[in-house]
Design goal:
Strand order of the largest sheet: 5-6-7-3-8-9
CATH superfamily: P-loop containing nucleotide triphosphate hydrolases
Strand content: 25-35%
CATH topology: Rossmann fold
Number of helices: 10
Radius of gyration: 19 Å
Structural class: alpha/beta
Number of domains: 1
Number of strands: 11
């Protein structure tokens, strides 16, 4: 499956949020969306998920528009993890993860063996199995994020779009989630993740798309996108660079000063 966005633009509240964005999602790749606060990353992710119609431009899934493909088919092809972890659902963690299987089930049908296997695998992958029976409202913010990520994984869609999945997680689970997303991509899925942590973006992502003030200003390998000039111009920082255990290390270090 291929996902292609061409000249996407959208305005919210009469204000342009994204302008003329071209982007292709590729199977087997971990793509990071990076940029400062308010750059338009979440809006772009919602467009790619088919949750927000563009004001102009086109979005195609295997050459089909979201309308031609249909909501049910799109829900089986695109798994979406929204930003934030608050929910009022009075459901257990396992039941919440089970919601990810709804696109695969017939109306009023119970979970199949395949559904339960997908739920169990997703809970284990996100280190959420120990609290599978607990109501979601009793979990910490980080635990809820892991459950909601498991729900997205349970869809077993060709594409996984995750908006700030590291928010609220401790360092260990941040690394484990990035390793999980990379493994998911290596198994053939296309994974798109919104990140603010440039250190993890540079280390784990195959490709980065840098969004600034609603425009795609750079796209490519992390080392090319996050060069010194763009770090200063877009993020206003300088960085320490190196390698550790054979992997690139980029650490935002101090505020950039032209002087």
């Amino acid at each position: 499956m291929t996902v292609e966005a061409r000249a996407l633009a959208v305005s919210l509240g009469g204000k342009p949020v994204l302008q003329e964005v071209d982007l292709a999602l590729r199977p087997g790749e971990l793509l990071g969306l990076v940029g400062p606060n308010g750059a338009g990353k979440t809006t772009l992710l919602r467009l790619l998920a088919g949750l927000l119609p563009p004001a102009s431009g086109s979005l195609r899934y295997d050459g089909e528009s979201p309308r031609a493909l249909g909501r049910q088919a799109l829900a089986r092809r695109i798994a979406y993890l929204a930003q934030g972890g608050d929910t009022a659902w009075p459901l257990s963690a396992e039941a919440v993860v089970g919601l990810g299987r709804l696109p695969h089930r017939r109306p009023f049908a119970g979970p199949s063996r395949a559904d339960q296997a997908a739920i169990d695998h997703a809970l284990e992958a996100c280190d959420a199995a120990p609290f599978r029976d607990r109501p979601l409202g009793t979990l910490s913010g980080g635990e809820r994020r892991r459950v909601l990520l498991a729900r997205a994984l349970a869809v077993e869609a060709p594409y996984l779009l995750a908006d700030e999945p590291l928010a609220g997680l401790d360092p260990l689970h941040q690394i484990e989630v990035m390793e999980l997303l990379r493994r998911t991509a290596r198994r053939g899925a296309g994974v798109v993740v919104v990140l603010h942590d440039l250190t993890l973006a540079a280390r784990f992502c195959d490709r980065l798309a840098l969004i600034d003030r609603g425009r795609l200003v750079a796209e490519g390998a992390p080392a090319e996108v996050l060069d010194d000039e763009r770090l200063a111009a877009v993020f206003g920082v300088t960085a320490f660079r190196g390698r550790h255990d054979g992997e690139p290390l980029l650490l935002p270090w101090r505020a950039y000063s032209s002087g």
